[in-house]
Structures are given as structure tokens and as C-alpha cells.
Write a structure and sequence with these properties.
Domain CBF1-interacting co-repressor CIR N-terminal: 13-45
Strand content: under 5%
Number of domains: 1
Protein name: Corepressor interacting with RBPJ 1
Number of strands: 0
Largest sheet: none
Pfam family, one: Cir_N
Distance between the termini: 82 Å
Radius of gyration: 24 Å
GO molecular function: transcription corepressor activity
Structural class: mainly alpha
Low-confidence stretches: none
Number of helices: 2
InterPro entries: CIR1, CIR_N_dom
Length: 61
């Protein structure tokens, strides 16, 4: 009954070990990583622009 039951449960949409749910979880994790990389890149660019603005402001004094 163990092998049959596991096989049966893995085909259910709510089971965390089903292939569709594993694929969804993997895709969500890769999307989350991509957003984090873009956020870090955006923060670096904003820091660069802020530093340039401060340097330009100081050079006019």
C-alpha cells in the first residue's frame, strides 16, 4: 500500500511533492532571485547617481 499510496498522493494538486508543485516552487524561487538581483542593481545605480549629484553640488561651491 505504501508505493501505491505515495504514487496516488503525488498526483494530487495539493501535494507538495507533485511535479507541478515542485516546478511552481522552483519557478517562484528563480523569479524571487531575479527580483533580488534587479533590486540590488537598482540600489547601486541610485547610489552612483546620488554620489554624482553630491560631487557636482560640492564642485559648484
Amino acid at each position: 500500500m505504501g508505493n501505491g499510496f505515495i504514487n496516488y498522493m503525488c498526483k494530487k494538486f495539493f501535494h507538495p511533492a507533485s511535479r507541478d508543485n515542485l516546478k511552481r516552487a522552483w519557478m517562484a524561487e528563480s523569479y524571487r532571485k531575479k527580483l533580488e538581483e534587479l533590486r540590488v542593481q537598482y540600489e547601486k545605480e541610485q547610489d552612483l547617481y546620488t554620489n554624482k549629484y553630491v560631487l557636482d553640488a560640492l564642485s559648484t561651491l
